[in-house]
Amino acid sequence: MRQFSKSQAQAMVEFALAATLIFFLLAAAIDLGFLFFTKQGLTSAAQEGAMYGSNKLKSRTGGGRELDYVTIQSRVRYESGDTGGNGISNLLDLNSNGKDDIKQESGVIDSTGKTGYIKVLSLADNNVNGNPTDDGGALCEDPSKSTVPCYVYVSVTKVHRMFFPLSPSFDNSVNVTSSYYLLIRDSFRTGSGTENYGTPTATPNANQLVIEPDVFSSTFTDLTKMPWTFKAYDKGVGTSNGAGIQNVQITFAFPGGSPSLPNGADSAVPYCVFGGATSCKSLSQTSLISAMDTNSEKNALNGKTFMITVTATGNNGVSVSNTFTTVYKK
User: Fold this and answer.
1) What is the DSSP letter of 250?
2) Cβ pair 192, 183 in contact under 8 A
3) Predicted model pTM
């Protein structure tokens, strides 16, 4: 019988102890990797269901709109393909018993979305902070009539079978859950709760407001006779003159910027240099003489450039300005 030296025996014992620890660490690393892989798969599936549900409501019995719970659950189950994914995270077998959750058994998937392994809820964001999960689970029964934002909430749970159930921290299986929510954008809701499935009126903004010359010349010979008009409209509303416009302010400025002669605000077309409700006006002789007296004689202004600033204000108060130049020719 072979005899081991004291040092060899000690090394064997140390190796046995170290190998056991290394094996447990390796097993834990593998199982944690599989858990992370499963979590990622469930997150993608929940996101797929929420994205579909946020855009595809269905008509409900008695009027209104509601989530298409069955179709959303189907989108979740087949997010990884017809086979449900790989054996580690099979979305068709969420309770991990080797059977299809719908075709081979019942009770795993609740078609109402309220219970089961795939929960689908329409949550109300009552405090309007963008997070519907902190409102006590308040439901949004009909998103098309709600006066607060409604979100589709999808939660997916899977039973993960441990490959190395040797650690005292784990059992033979562990439940993994992932959820996702998105704002419901299927239909346009009015503040009164009235259903409206049409296209909402666009909100004007500075990028949509357009100011163009209508009747305009780069030179002029008479300060009192300038029937120049401008077009202003909001592209989000229409391209006709005045579409989506609250008012237009036009300022006529002498060389050097002073004095400047505002025309007041035209609330209707035509938008004229010196104002015009139904027709364009001319600058009064008294105002003209006063302005000329403070800016030298007419001869000194010959060949000088005057500035016309047009400011259009949209229906929601957003404004944009454009400046045009013209030269005085005596």
Assistant:
1) E
2) no
3) 0.52
